[in-house]
Amino acid sequence: MTENYRNGEVKKIEDFLGLSDNPVFDKGCTGKDELSLRHYISAISFFTVYGLGITTLVAYMTMKWEMSFILILILGFVVPFIGIKIALDTDEWSMSLFGYTLVVLGFAVIMGPFVNHYTSGTVIAAFMATCAVSVVLSIAGIVYPRSLESLGGYLFGGLFALIFVRIGQLILVSLGMYQYSFISVVEYGAAFLFSLYIVYDWNRGLRMAHTLSNSVKTALGIYLDIINLFISLLRLMGSDEE
Predict the structure, then answer these.
(1) Comparing C-alpha atoms, which of 120, 115, 133, 122 is closest to residue 55?
(2) How far apart, in whole angstroms, are the C-alpha atoms of residue 189 and residue 96?
(3) For all residues of the chain together, what is the average pLDDT?
(4) φ, ψ (nearest 5 deg) of residue 35
(5) How far apart are the first and last CA of the chain?
């Protein structure tokens, strides 16, 4: 059993590196848009960069915008929720991409005014750190496709806890009880959590059927991980500017 598993993993890596003539498909995957492992990984990478590129461009264009709470709520929660719903509820890659793009545009518009609170040097430093961490962890998620498979429940629990902590932060800030030492601990924890999620979402994506639609869905998850990692690193590096 162990030997068969290892042989299977070696075969996957060989296909990705182009060392095998036979494309690898997910178990039971048959369909007109099924992809080889190498093409599937390339598609995930492309769609992830697509989302990050649009976010960078739109955020730059909206840096000077004034955002009301209602607009932030709509663009940061309502529009992404609709986009995620569309992306995940269809097997058509074009509709998945449409939903993914809605998510990207929603976050991108409010990202501009957010990063405008920090100096360009801090933003660039956080961006470079996010890129480096994301690339390294993406490679880890590809090379070791089952590395964090058993931690899904724990990661979800951590994400659920983080949401409640974020709500608590907003309450403390509104009451004038802002303590950066506490905020710093939260952001370190958030950065660690979303770093693990990058590996996990790659692991999960590689276990899905290797279709173009699933490559978009996987890229959506990785995109959200990277954006949240960037926000946490930016807040940590720019603590004196807040």
Answers:
(1) 115
(2) 31
(3) 82
(4) -120, 155
(5) 54
Neighbours of 148 (CB within 10 A): 21
Query: Which CA distances in Å does 229 have to 120, 122, 159, 163, 199?
Result: 18, 15, 13, 14, 13
pTM of the predicted model as reported, rounded to 2 decimal places = 0.81
Which tokens hold the place of 226? 């990277």
Q: What is the pLDDT of residues 72-105, one digit of tens each?
A: 778 888 899 999 999 999 999 999 999 999 999 9
The pLDDT tens digits for 106-140 are: 999 999 999 998 999 999 999 999 999 999 999 99
Residue 220: alpha-carbon gap to chain centroid:
6
Burial of 163 (0-12, 13-18, 19+ CB in 10 A): exposed
DSSP the chain: -HHHHHHHHHHHHHHHTT--SSPP--TT--STTB--HHHHHHHHHHHHHHHHHHHHHHHHHTTT----HHHHHIIIIIHHHHHHHHHHT-S-HHHHHHHHHHHHHHHHHHHHHHHTTS-HHHHHHHHHHHHHHHHHHHHHHHHSTTTTGGGHHHHHHHHHHHHHHHHHHHHHHHTT---HHHHHHHHHHHHHHHHHHHHHHHHHHHHS--BHHHHHHHHHHHHHHHHHHHHHHHHHHTGGG-
Name the token pair of 59: 């955020």
| CA 112 centroid distance within chain | 18
User: How far is 16 from 232, CA to CA, in rounded Å?
Assistant: 32
